[in-house]
Amino acid sequence: MAEQNTPEHRHYDPLTSDGPRRKKGMGPFGVALIVVCGLHGLLFAYLAKQKFEAVFQEYSDEAVDVELPPPPPPPPPPPPPPPPTNEPPPPPAVVQPRPPVAPPPDVTPPPPLPIPPVEKRVETTAPPVISAVPPVPTAPPARASVITRPDWARKPSGDDMARYYPDRAQRMEVSGRATISCTVTARGTLEGCSIVSESPADMGFGDAAIKLSRLFRMKPKTLDGAPVDGGQVTVPLVFQVPQ
């Protein structure tokens, strides 16, 4: 026999069963929450408005009349001094003379004490001792050194003068002169030459004399016959226009 599916019958217990579900709705708690939120919103809006809106207050200047008391009167002037009285000056004080002082009585000086005579001492001096050390002979005076000054050993020739003649002065056919100062070495050459004077000043005769000094040969300065450096010479040169 076939089984028949019959619906299960559940027993409803009001204590343990959930019961039929009610539809959700807004209760009194929700309404109160909405009212509170609205009040808070109005309060925040009021505070924001009070904070960001400027408050203007009207002021009025009121003048007040103040009466100052009058200044105190000046003090009265001091009374004038009393007039001088014509009273006679007081009499001068009487100076009492001092009684004379009696001179001191004569005092007899004591007799001088006897002083014994002083015996004269006789001192004998020993004769001087003469040493037998012979005197040290003095050195003879040093002989003065013999110094000779530099002198010419070879003078510049006419060809040398023409070779170093200034070009500008030669084109203009201008003659001139120059003086130079040099130091003579121990070998007889010149060094450290400088221009002392030149005429005319703008024709180059001084530079020509410096170049020409390389060809000079002189006898050097000697000290006791030995040549030494340091001799000073002054050399005048005359430049004539080459023919």
Helix count, DSSP H or I runs of 4 or more residues:
4
What fraction, in percent, of the residue positions are helical?
10-25%
The first-to-last residue Cα distance is 176 Å
β-strand amount: 15-25%
Helix vs. strand class:
alpha+beta
| Biggest sheet: strand arrangement | 1-6-7
CATH superfamily of the domain at 147-239: TonB
CATH class of the domain at 147-239 equals Alpha Beta
Describe, in plain words, how this protein is organized in 3D.
The protein is of the alpha+beta class. It has a domain at 147-239: TolA/TonB C-terminal domain (2-Layer Sandwich), CATH 3.30.2420. Helices cover 18% and strands 18% of the residues. It contains four helices and eight strands, in the order αββααββαββββ. The protein has a three-stranded antiparallel β-sheet, with no helix packed on it. The model has no long low-confidence stretch (mean pLDDT 75).
